[in-house]
Task: structure prediction
Amino acid sequence: MRKILIAILLLFPLLASAQTLEQVIRLAQDSTIAAFQSRYEYDYHTSRFARFEALRKPQLELTISPNYIKMITDPTRDYVYLRNFNRFSTTGRLMLSQKALGLGGDAYLGGQVLWSEYFMNDQRDMPREFVAMPLVVGYQQSLLGYNPHRWEKAVEDARMEAARKQLNYQLHVIAEETTRRFFRLACAQGMLDMCERNMQMADTLYAIAREKAGIAMVSLAELRSMELQRLNASNALQSALNEEQLAREALVSYLRADDFPDEGRLTVPTLTRQISLTDEDIMDLARSNSPAIQQCRMALTEARQQQDKARREQGAKVGVDLNVGMQQLNSNLLGAITDPRFYMIGAVTLSIPLIDHGAAKSGHAAAVAWSERETQALREAERALAEDVRITLANLRSHEQMLAQTAEAVALADDVFVLTADNYANGLCDINTYSLAQSRRDSAYNQHLAALANYWTTYYHLLTLTQYE
Result:
């Protein structure tokens, strides 16, 4: 009988289709909706940053603009300035431009040709015209002292860095959620195995009790108690089956994996993992890899950009547009190109707000306030992260200690239960002693499963915070 009971109480077996925690996490990071959304979001930011980098390089653009004008003044009169005409013109422009990153303006180099054709009854006074500008070199910049290109670079770099950290963070969040669902199913499977063992044990002891009742070795009350024990074990087994099915469906639906085994057992990791980092190193990793902090830094950079811009726009605004080149007008294209004349154009725009009812000052005050708000938000994010890391480290050490203690308790409870069941089968103890031993073993097993789930969930939450591999 002792050998039979020991065989029944063996831990649940690992089937050929067993899934480890690492395998399930990899599957989740490849197939879940959250994983796809995170990668699409990262691809969006990557493409946006690539576009930003491309626009900072020299841009060559060909622009062709046809234009048609029909002028009707007075059909009865045909004076010089009131004559009726139809005009068709086309402008072709080839321009090479480059952002002056150090200054904040735009430099350009290129050429332009304008062809104008007039359709009238008498075209002698308004012939065909070609305006050729084979060479144009210029530079334009507004709001001297403010460099938008440098700020754009700082903002876009911060956005790209935030996107990288967000992707890594989201993959770790998926691992953390997968761990929760994994251990819900693992605990349900463990409880199911325990209930199956209890059911088998209840059937065995009930059969023994019936045999003993036939020869008046047990009382009717004890026999009825064993029957109740068997019924309770059956109800507990049915509840465990339902919970195992719900936990499996929750995991499979999250994984979006149709080929996940319906009856496969999960391989629960038994050994804890040591992190060879000090608490200070872990805190530094969390700060440097936190997407929340990176988002706050990005928002603070944007706020400081607006603050700088608003500060420089409070007073007079200056715009500059200088260009030199060659230009000629002729009735034929060859003449316009072969006989160009040098020209130089310089335009300076000065805008002085005389009465703006405090709009510029209020705009700067708003930008300053928002910059302060983002600064405080960054500090709060750093404080919340530090608190989360400290609590997670404390919980991880506590759960690790609890895991070792509950494993020892399970081994001891199993030994006690086997001895008690053997004694009860041989008539050396009563049903109450057996029930107490079974209850203690079940409690120890439940605590061990809970300690396993708490430890690994906390461990992967720490990986989410630090992105430590």
